[in-house]
Amino acid sequence: MSLPVPTPRDSLKTNSNRDNSDAFVDVESSSETAVSGSESCSTSSVSEVVSAFNGAGDAICSRETEASTPRQKEKVVAVKLGLSQRSKLKAAAAPPAVLLNKSEKQAQEFLHHSQTEEALHELIRCTALARLVFGDGHWKLAAAHSNLASAYFKLNDYARQAEYHCDLAKDILLNSQWLLCCSSTAEKGEVLAVLISVYLQLGLAQINLHKHSEAEKNLLKAGKLCADYSQLPSSDQSRGEEFEFSVLHVLGKVCLSLKKTDKAVIHLKKAIDMIEKQGRTAMLVTLNVELAQAEFTIGTEFSKDAGLDQLHKAHKIALKLYGNEGVRVADVAHQLGLAYTNMDNSKSQYAEDWYLAALAIYEKALGKSAVQTILLQDELVKVYIKTGRHEEALETLRQTLLDKMERYGDYSESVADAYKLIGSILLTLGKVSTAVGMFEKCLYVEKLVFGDGQKKVLATQKTLQLIKRNSGSGVKQEKFKS
After folding, report:
1. 347 to each of 220, 385, 468, how far by Cα in Å?
2. In the chain, helix, strand, coil percent, each to 5?
């Protein structure tokens, strides 16, 4: 009989150098091998294996001194390394139910201390041990797969692994028809909670994999199950409300991705109402920003005004929670700047004010070479160009060029784009020779990054040829867009 506990860890180590998207399949199949014949598993049989293994180990160790050739010594040492697992085998002599309880507690402790890999190892053990203890079709095995899926997605952003384990859990629950054969309403509540969690996590994973239509279907199923769960007399009300909020929140985001903006607005407003009743103010910042994005996507004047109201509300809440120098405050200010940028030129001053407010916080809290700082300065440059303030745009671009080199490297797409934009502004100002130098630098970096025949490289090359030809023939300089 194969021992259940070491197998998942050993499988994970064996497959650690493979592509992350395939590794979990090997882990799962290894754990299935480990638990084959699990119904006949007993403590005495485990003890016999341990005893035999230990006896063999003693015999091998006694031969170490008898090994005369280097090859014989290598073999002895290799086997001794395997014997280092002896203590683990002794621990495995405990009943599987005890080991399962221990692994569950250990996983929670690792999760609490943000020890990602260790937590995943223990959760993989839990799936193998749950199959040993409960059997292949039990809802608690589905719960173990659900927990593992959640860890894969939340800790490592492994969406494919999460989708795979959610599908396993869903098949167990639906094929075994646990909802029809529960022994009590309390057990039915637990089964429903696992199924809701599975559909919810499946939706989240599929959004990450850009399977938005499938994600919406699974989230709608989770929403229906939430209603069933809340009607059970033994249900946990706070748990049910958390499920309902999560489903509404994620549904809002997936509907926005599917351009079902009216539905997205409805779902997000319901989520905001729930959070306001619960007094969870911190979540309101994120929800109001997402609702504003949905309103802006609708595109009517009324919806744009509503979106601005939501952003101002989010900024007010963020100020109250995080103070004047909070990064979250800067994030909302950045969104407000973007909103005003997309309006007519009369709102450009508002956009600049919000960008500068956010920039001051980012530079102080994160530094000048932080990604948020660089992206914000690029937006500020767009405002300067839109309002005809090319000298200010040029000065800002030159100041941020070194920061981009520090963040992304001297030969990066971001640096190439900066050279190109500087060149375009110089053309607008009539400084052709300097502009040509910038476009040549841009072309050089783009060739290093993309290669000679790439579409972007060819476009830059064509632009550069046009500039040189027109300037050489005395044609009046025009603005060339990058």
Report:
1. 40, 14, 37
2. 80, 0, 20
Q: Among candidates 428, 413, 344, 343, which has minimal Cα distance to 378?
A: 413
Half-sphere exposure of residue 313: CA atoms within 13 angstroms, side-chain side: 20
Q: How many CB atoms lie within 10 A of CB 249?
A: 22
Q: Which residues of the chain have pLDDT under 50?
A: 1-87, 89, 473-482
SS3 label, residue 19: coil
Residue 387 Cα distances to 32, 351, 384, 430, angstroms:
65, 11, 5, 18
Half-sphere exposure of 269 (CA within 13 A, CB side): 10
Residue 138 DSSP one-character state? -
Backbone angles phi, psi at 84, to 5 degrees: -65, -15
* CA 113 to chain centroid: 19
The closest alpha carbon to 88, from 4, 170, 16, 199, belongs to 4
pLDDT in tens, 271-316: 999 999 888 888 999 999 999 999 999 988 899 999 999 999 999 9
> Which residues are CB-neighbours of 258 under 8 A, at least 6 positions away?
212, 213, 216
Q: What is the DSSP letter of 84?
A: T
CA atoms lying within 13 Å on the CB side of residue 251: 25
Provide the token pair at 288: 């109001």
Residue in the structure block whose two tokens are 């959004």: 207
Q: Which two tokens stand for residue 102?
A: 């221990």
Instruction: For residue 41, give every residue at least 6 positions away whose Cβ sits within 8 Å of its Cβ, in sequence order, or none.
Output: 1, 4, 96, 132
Specify whether the backbone of 210 is left (phi greater than 0), alpha (psi in -120 to 50) or beta: left
Contact 166, 201 (CB under 8 A): yes
Amino acid at 308: L
Whether residue 267 contacts residue 258, with contact meaning beta carbons closer than 8 Å, is answered with: no
- Between CA 315 and CA 293 the distance in angstroms is 14
Q: Which of 128, 163, 158, 160 is nearest to 146 (CA)?
A: 163
